[in-house]
């Protein structure tokens, strides 16, 4: 038996990637297919065990049909297993011609090569760190409404750490994110589910749920820290950041809903968020109908929307950069399942049913759509640390790039790739379960969103005006 893993090839372009040749030495599996335009394939690779392991090697050569561009895949084992992309015949926005991009290798899991181009074919983007991806893509994204753009999103974004809450709460069943808010922003996330609660008189992120009249959960980052990190990011990068406030509680007072006065104090606390998007008298205007260029032409923009319960109003805060659910309607329906197959079928079926981006207004379904690619702990999982929230998250990460991407169409694509554990793809909760272990960060989720914008939305004439 050899040592196997996979390479996902995601073709976010209108051109097939055709194999021009391949050969290998001491590789037990090294066979490469054509990758059709707008599709992804997971290719199994296995390094051999015979002979000198350090001699294992393979090459595969791809041409990009109808262009002069070509690239090469290399498999090597100099000191560790490695898959590398050689841009020997093309360049991208992130990588110059001749660059070698090391993707690593994951045993029994996948690494990703994502490459896409916008509808004009003016520039190519590839896997790698694309922190200011909105600005990089403004040529094609600037005139699209937010309903027509895909972005990564962070579920329970403020839970990038864990601080003691109720009896039974533990980081394995309460912490949803490995990175803090700044780290998630750097990884490309642009939609943030933040759940402010009052705990010991302070505003913090909370992750609480009521089970049979008993509240369970814990706290994450302090709101003041999250605000600072958002401000630090928008000082550097001219991107749109959407903050969705929900699940607010007063944990100091029997987990009651916030009063109007407490909501007002929350808004006052959030006034120190810089670059807030503001308009006078927004009424019930749907700002997801605005184009991206309305938000970030001259600088960064932070759009704050609060899911207000009955009896609570924005008052004059509506003129100060705060909006309610009428101003940003969202389709948000999670699967509430810990089963991979059930979750994926549920989310992809909902996407197919709820999204139809067509010119005919009578047939169009375009509510801002969250693809909740999240597994939810069930009662039997709460004390099973191997099924920690972040472990469940990475167990479905690889499927985003094949199963999900191959289900998207130009007329049916998500607005938010909504996930836990943004920025990682390996288990971080392992024995002795005292804290998350250190794992490497990964920014492919942003490259995936770029590919959806290019390969799917970019081929929709209603969206592009073509």
TrEMBL record:
GO terms for biological process: lipid metabolic process. InterPro entries: PI-PLC_domain, PLC-like_Pdiesterase_TIM-brl. GO terms for molecular function: phosphoric diester hydrolase activity. Coiled coil: none annotated. PANTHER family: PHOSPHATIDYLINOSITOL-SPECIFIC PHOSPHOLIPASE C X DOMAIN-CONTAINING PROTEIN, PTHR13593. This is PLC-like phosphodiesterase. The lineage of its organism: Eukaryota, Fungi, Dikarya, Ascomycota, Pezizomycotina.
């Amino acid at each position: 038996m050899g040592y196997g893993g996979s390479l996902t090839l995601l073709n976010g372009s209108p051109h097939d990637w055709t194999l021009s040749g391949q050969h290998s030495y001491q590789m037990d599996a090294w066979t490469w297919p054509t990758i059709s335009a707008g599709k992804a394939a997971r290719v199994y690779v296995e390094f051999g065990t015979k002979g000198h392991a350090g001699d294992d090697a393979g090459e595969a050569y791809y041409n990009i049909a109808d262009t002069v561009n070509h690239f090469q895949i290399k498999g090597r084992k100099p000191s560790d297993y490695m898959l590398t992309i050689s841009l020997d015949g093309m360049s991208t926005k992130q990588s110059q011609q001749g660059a070698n991009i090391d993707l690593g290798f994951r045993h029994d899991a996948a690494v990703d090569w994502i490459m896409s181009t916008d509808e004009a074919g003016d520039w190519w983007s590839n896997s790698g760190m694309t922190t200011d991806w909105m600005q990089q893509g403004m040529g094609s994204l600037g005139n699209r409404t937010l309903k027509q753009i895909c972005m990564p999103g962070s579920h329970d974004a403020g839970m990038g750490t864990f601080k003691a809450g109720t009896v039974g709460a533990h980081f394995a069943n309460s912490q949803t994110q490995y990175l803090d808010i700044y780290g998630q922003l750097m990884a490309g996330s642009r939609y943030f589910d933040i759940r402010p609660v009052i705990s010991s008189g302070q505003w913090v992120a909370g992750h609480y749920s009521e089970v049979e009249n008993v509240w369970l959960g814990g706290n994450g980052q302090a709101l003041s820290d999250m605000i600072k990190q958002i401000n630090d990011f928008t000082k550097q990068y001219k991107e749109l950041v959407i903050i969705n406030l929900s699940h607010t509680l007063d944990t100091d007072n029997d987990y009651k809903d916030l009063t109007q006065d407490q909501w007002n104090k929350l808004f006052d606390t959030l006034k120190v968020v810089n670059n807030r998007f503001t308009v006078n008298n927004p009424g019930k205007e749907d700002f997801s109908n605005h184009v991206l260029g309305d938000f970030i032409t001259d600088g960064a923009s932070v759009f704050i929307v609060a899911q207000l319960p009955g009896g609570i109003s924005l008052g004059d805060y509506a003129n100060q950069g705060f909006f309610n659910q009428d101003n940003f309607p969202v389709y948000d329906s999670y699967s509430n399942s810990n089963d991979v197959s059930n979750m994926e079928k549920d989310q992809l079926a909902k996407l197919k049913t709820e999204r139809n981006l067509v010119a005919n207004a009578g047939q169009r379904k375009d509510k801002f759509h969250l693809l909740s690619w999240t597994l939810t702990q069930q009662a039997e999982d709460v004390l099973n640390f191997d099924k920690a929230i972040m472990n469940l998250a990475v167990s479905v990460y690889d499927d985003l790039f094949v199963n999900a991407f191959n289900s998207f169409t130009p007329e049916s694509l998500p607005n938010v790739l909504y996930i836990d554990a943004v920025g990682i793809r390996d288990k971080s909760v392992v024995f002795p379960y005292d804290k998350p272990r250190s794992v490497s960060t990964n920014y492919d989720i942003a490259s995936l969103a770029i590919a959806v914008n290019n390969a799917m939305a970019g081929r929709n004439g209603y969206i592009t005006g073509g």
